[in-house]
Amino acid sequence: MNNLLFKSTQISIVFFICFLIFTPINAKATNGEANENNWYEDFTYNLDENAGTIKLSRYNGNNENLVIPVRAVIDGKTYSTIIVNLSSQNRNVIKKLSFENGVKLVNGIKFGNIDTLEEIDFTGVDTSEMTDMSYMFESCYNIKNLDLSMFDTRNVTTMEYMFSDCMALESVDLTSFDTSKVTLIRRMFSRCYHLESLDLSNLNFQSIKRNDSNNNTMFDEMQWLATLKTPINVPADSRISLPTGTNYCYSYVDESGEKITYLPYGDASSVSKVITLKNESVLPGYIYHVDSTNKKIDLFGYNGNAQTITIPRYVTIDGESYSVNISSCQILNAKEVHFEPGVTISGSFFGSEFEKIDLTGIIGFTIANGDALFSNCRNLKQVIWGNTFDITGNNRISGWQWLFTDARSLKEIDLSRFSPRTVEHIYQAFKGCYSLEKLNLSSWDMSAIQTDAIMCDWGLDTCQNLKYIYCPKNLPANVSIQLPGIFFDQNNNMYFQLPTGLSESILIVSEKIADEVDGFNDNSNDTTWQNAFRYTKEEYLELELHEYIGNKNANICIMPEAIIAGRTRTTFIKEIKIRTTGTVSFGEGFRLSGSTIFKNSSFSTIDFTGVKAGSIRGNSDMLKGCKGITKIIAPVGLSANADVVLPYTFVDTDDNEYDSLPTGLSTTKILLVKNAEDAVVPEEPEEIEQIGGTSGTEGGNTEGGNTEGGQGGSQSGNQSGDEEQSGSQPDGQTSEEASDVDTPKVGETTSYSNAVYEISGEGTVTYKQAQNKKKKKVTIPAKISISGESYTVTSIDKNAFKGNKKLTSIVIPSSVVRIEAKAFYGCKNLKKIVINANSNLTIGKNAFKNLHPDCVIQVKGVGGKTKDKIVRAIKKQTNATVK
């Protein structure tokens, strides 16, 4: 692409303009959509004005298939792209990475920082300036194939750890590599367990450091390497070991069949040779070391084809019986591992691929520490400890460093049967356990734990899904073990770190679930003002308000705090819609910010008296959407750099005009709209802003902020057969005719023809429950009539049909925007659900869980991405067929 720019004399102006327009199309880094000018905003970057370069270091977007452009245009200036040390803010995002022609890679780049990377297309990259490729692909755990045939390595001097821990790597193309200047190759291919064939015939090792023991480790732990084409010109005084040793069950042989333990060197390396693996194991699929003196074999690998393996207690070699011990052992391919009684363990299972391991039968743990026992076992889902795997009485056990590091599929770790009183360090024992939900350390006595700051990193802060922790005892007061967020005990004590000095273990639970866990949710002192809003509970005890859903003629006071399930949460607003004709005010000390926006709101007055002085800073469009506002009570102490733009011109009592809120006031000031005819209340739009989330407390609030619903369209359900129109009117009355004498208030319930409804707002009701629970088929109406007025059914309450064993069919109208938690939970005979979706539909937690196994949920009235979103949300929580 650079050639197109520089050879401008050879292209037409039209072609040049098209080039500028379409070049960025593949550059957008969010949702796969193009953005012509600002793709770089998805990255952390530095600009070098003198060199004219943009240096990318971290990706902050959400695109799985990321294409990095060759240039960026910022403020009219063009910058060439350089990749410095690319990482991803969201560890679950990037799967494939590619580059436009001419993107430069420079020293220090480490692709292993992108956790989920599966494929890299290096076509067109420029590596000519690189001199150091060490660690470049280290820990790229998911990459199977690397084509590096386009790499320019003529200036590279260091390649140590370049492919280390690429545990899934099966092939790598190095045919273009110029290694004539390379001096360091330490652990270059170590732990490439699946790399069975390697062609280094094009590599020239003439400059490799002589007598350097570090270079000797180039092939460490590559015991499954079956075929190797050797590099040339290995210095005569260099010894680069092959992955074998004395008394191993396998060896390497050259083309003549002679056993060798080092790469050919000196004159023997003037031409490349082919070296092959010769395996003489008596256990098919296993490799091991033979200890003839103690009549023992140490297993250190399995690479067979069996899905389930049972490791034997004894094997017979040359007519003699040998006991079996597990050394540092990588078990590949097998999904399940068992042991015959009496097998011993003296090492770890680092990097193994099994999903389940049953340690029943293991008679001991015969090493001084448990370091890395299941480290990098990324598929591990279950550990069965058995009754004989016992470390309690082993006084030599001093460490559990990296015990479960990167065991990212484990949901539960129960170590309660162990009481390792001599453990001194647990460094990063749980780091990278991203799926972990429950951790039981209840019997652990931490009296001997090291208190060094570095040893206090257990890695728990990376376990973002952790919900329950049974805490260890006697953790010293000066030890700070960081937790992944806020946790609570049953006395509502809050913890950011593991509690110290416990004489008995206690259970602590994550803030994310505490409100729903029995014994952790005292509602006796809860506030209720927040129930007039849709909100989400955010981390660190914050409450974000999204929309006012109460009486549309009410005066509203938004308080700085709310108490929910006994816990005080700080209220904040980013973007909110308030549809009321009354006054909006704030409790004393409420913090607004320059980013707060009142969107499409209709209130007539806003009173800033309670807002904390100085909390609003910078430019703000806070009030631009308040078209019906006629009166403002301006706040005290508004920062001088705040510029809160008003929707119209306002005047004070002295007829001073204001187009923005006055700053630096010592007392509040009343402002009135200058031209009253300007203040026109906007009509309510047809589509209400979607606030995703699990259905929560009263008032239709959401919890956690995670959208479980989707968007939808029109109603299409019909009645037939013996279906009941739930909430239909008494005999002889139409929906318009039926009415009560008194108009019910918000929160009151009303019964109509076999159904109970609760008034949820002006003109809206919630379906609470069916009165006749023997009806098999129910159709919920879109509207009912109360006191002669029409009310829209907008939600189905939590537990509305929970456990109903008679219900077989339900039709939900398009007016429903919320189906609350467990609305249909446990309806064992419910076989047919028709959802006439609308554009604001949210689905509560477990709303459709545990239905009849043949149940079909049909989403109607929507299509495309909208329908897909709803279907995916329901599928996550149900055993039914969703379509």
Layout of helices and strands, plus pairs?
Blueprint: H1 2-6, H2 13-22, E1 43-48, E2 53-59, E3 65-68, E4 71-74, E5 77-88, E6 96-99, E7 104-105, E8 119-121, E9 145-147, E10 171-173, E11 197-199, E12 227-229, E13 250-253, E14 259-260, E15 274-279, E16 286-291, E17 296-302, E18 308-311, E19 314-317, E20 320-331, E21 336-339, E22 344-345, E23 356-358, E24 382-384, E25 412-414, E26 438-440, E27 468-470, E28 482-488, E29 494-497, E30 507-510, H3 511-514, E31 533-538, E32 542-548, E33 556-558, E34 561-564, E35 567-577, E36 583-586, E37 597-598, E38 605-607, E39 619-620, E40 631-634, E41 643-651, E42 657-660, E43 669-673, E44 694-695, E45 702-703, E46 724-725, E47 749-752, E48 755-761, E49 764-770, E50 777-779, E51 783-786, E52 789-796, E53 809-812, E54 818-819, E55 832-836, E56 842-843, E57 856-860, H4 864-875, E58 881-882
List keywords for this structure.
883 residues; mainly beta; Leucine-rich repeat, LRR (right-handed beta-alpha superhelix); eight-stranded mixed sheet; seven-stranded mixed sheet; disordered N terminus
In short:
The radius of gyration is 34 Å and the shape is globular.
Number of helices: 4
Proportion of residues in extended strands: 25-35%
Summarize the biggest pleated sheet.
Answer: 8 strands, mixed
Q: What structural class do you assign from the helix and strand content?
A: mainly beta
CATH architecture field of the domain at 23-229: Alpha-Beta Horseshoe
Q: Count the E strands.
A: 58
CATH homologous superfamily descriptor of the domain at 23-229: Ribonuclease Inhibitor
Distance between the termini: 46 Å
Write down the overall mean pLDDT.
83
| CATH C-level category of the domain at 23-229 | Alpha Beta
Percent range of helical residues: under 10%
CATH topology of the domain at 23-229: Leucine-rich repeat, LRR (right-handed beta-alpha superhelix)
User: Ranges with pLDDT <50 over ≥5 residues?
Assistant: 1-36, 392-396, 684-741
Overall body shape: globular
Rg of Cα set: 34 Å
